[in-house]
């Protein structure tokens, strides 16, 4: 064999081997980057993202976009290097996203539950802000199978137990503690977009208590007779809460909250309207600006990180509560100063 050819073949061996490594070997990292954004005042697949049925709503304009972080797993060495070199993606150890001992399905399920909880919290925070809807003992979840399955629904407000009024969860729990498994209790309830009703529930057993088990989780929350649905699927985590709440406030009140401005943002929301910090703020800001946003609502505790990498043309507005976010948007549309990071 010609010595030149032999030398070339020997030289190619590590190059080929490295190419195989790039294409085949996976790395223990996850890529995070800007994800899709969704206008909470708009539609997805022909449905309103925030849909209200059973009460008057008002016209809106502009945008109130919730933002997300894209996530890529099972990266090959070559993919990881390409994403890292792009400068738009962040590589983080996989254990930070998928903790050891938990499967991807378990983590995804937990994220979906967080998202559902954020929808509920957004509704209650908005109703509380509006101030027209008194609190009630509200059913958050119904165990299925369970004693109340098919009789009560999430969103029902419980008014009486065996004829005794209950104004809060403490009173409701105190009455249940006087029962035993097998007892039949009469529940007077209100249901959204339907007449009030009465349910007879035969209490079951639960290993964590010696009194009757009704199979519902309840909370003290503002209750309205109309129904709110959030029509976004496969969006995990709790960070859409603030933007969902703002969309509800905008739709349930006269006037336009953002005018013609393209506003985006992020932040968790608590039942009492407090805005909490989230992860991936700089990725979300980049996604918002790419979508056309000129204003971004930043949870106060994310301000330091947010100011480290502000996209050109994006104004940051600091928010701590739902009320302060609404006030800031009113100030923005009137030309007044807004809180800034």
Automatic annotation (TrEMBL):
Pfam families: Lon_C, PDZ_2. It catalyses: Hydrolysis of proteins in presence of ATP. GO terms for biological process: protein catabolic process; proteolysis. InterPro entries: Lon_proteolytic (IPR008269), Lon_Prtase (IPR027065), PDZ (IPR001478), PDZ_sf (IPR036034), Ribosomal_Su5_D2-typ_SF (IPR020568), Ribsml_uS5_D2-typ_fold_subgr (IPR014721). Residues 234-332 form the Lon proteolytic domain. Residues 128-193 form the PDZ domain. Its EC number is 3.4.21.53. One of its GO terms (molecular function) is serine-type endopeptidase activity. The keyword Protease applies. It comes from the Bacteria. Keywords: Hydrolase, Protease, Serine protease. The active site is at 239, 284. Belongs to the peptidase S16 family. This is endopeptidase La. The lineage of its organism: Bacteria, Bacillati, Actinomycetota, Actinomycetes, Mycobacteriales.
